[in-house]
Design brief:
The complex is a heterodimer. Chain A is an all-beta fold. Helices cover 0% and strands 54% of the residues of chain A. In chain A, strands 2, 4, 5, 9, 10 and 11 form a six-stranded mixed β-sheet that branches. In chain A, strands 1-3-8-7-6 form a five-stranded antiparallel β-sheet, with no helix packed on it. Chain A is globular. Chain B is built from no helices and eleven strands. Chains A and B meet through β4, β5, β9 and β10 of A and β5, β9 and β10 of B.
Chain lengths: 112, 114
């Protein structure tokens, strides 16, 4: 069974600070997705990374896929209260890419 | 708004009962996926349908079944409900088969079994 471990599980920081969330596995994935989920709503796809070493930027968010495609990170610069939410990483297995494997999530709180 | 719709938003029922959850995918998407999200298990893949046919199965209980209709909407049927089935149930859809990993989620159905 492929597993994705996210760290930290909880993070509370002040507005303006930087932060990094990690998503690690011992398994190789064909791609990795990051989602953000608000309470009572469905996950919203933020980005997909496919190539080992790939870096994608979405405004103040920077996503990186590890060279070996086993891990990923999400870095937020100058965090804002609007960044508060549950961040989920999801890996697409090499066999059966449609059966996404989700991490447990990082619950991020940005305090004004 | 992802374009994926789910009904109902909330469902409260008793143990032993049967319920049906409904999902309509984004316009043009042929694949529909069902996921269960609970506090202790996180988001778990249940089953996928592609253009009316079952394509992949995850950790779906035998008491649960799904189908996808010719108009591409899907229904997830949960029977002989137990307290442990209380969870959020999400439907997702995706576009081209070579990008099946890019899934767009609906707002979910919160099921409470009492």
């Amino acid at each position: 069974t492929q597993l994705l471990e996210q760290s930290p599980q909880f993070l509370s920081i002040q507005e303006g600070e930087n932060l990094t969330v990690y998503c690690n596995s011992s398994s190789v994935f064909s791609s990795l997705q990051w989602y953000r989920q608000e309470p009572g709503e469905g996950p919203v796809l933020l980005v997909t990374v496919v190539t080992g070493g790939e870096v994608k930027k979405l405004k103040r968010l920077t996503f990186q896929f590890g060279d070996a495609r086993k891990d990923s990170s999400l870095h937020i610069t100058a965090a804002q209260p609007g960044d508060t939410g549950l961040y989920l990483c999801a890996g697409a297995p090499i066999q059966g890419a449609q059966k996404l494997v989700f991490g447990q999530g990082t619950r991020l709180t940005i305090n004004p | 708004d992802s374009g994926v719709t789910q009904t109902p938003k909330h469902l409260i029922t008793a143990t032993g009962q049967r319920v049906t959850l409904r999902c309509s995918p984004r316009s043009g998407d042929l694949s529909v996926y069902w996921y269960q999200q609970s506090l202790d298990q996180g988001l778990q893949f249940l089953i996928q349908y592609y253009n009316g046919e079952e394509r992949a199965k995850g950790n779906i209980l035998e008491r649960f079944s799904a189908q996808q209709f010719p108009d591409l909407h899907s229904e997830l049927n949960l029977s002989s409900l137990e307290l442990g089935d209380s969870a959020l149930y999400f439907c997702a859809s995706s576009g081209p088969r070579d990008r099946a990993y890019e899934q767009y989620f609906g707002p979910g159905t919160r099921l409470t079994v009492t």
